[in-house]
Amino acid sequence: MTGQRVLKTEAVVAGGLVLALLVREFPSLRREARIWRMAGGFRAGHRYP
Prior knowledge:
This protein is an all-alpha fold. 73% of the residues lie in helices and 0% in strands.
């Protein structure tokens, strides 16, 4: 295999792993975003350390 093919294969494998991780963690990320918005988001300022 040439170096370019190895790099492309590694990029595809790494991309697949990242995509699988995002799909697996998506429900908990949505829940965390909802909690963050309820707590005030960026507007909360220094109320919550």
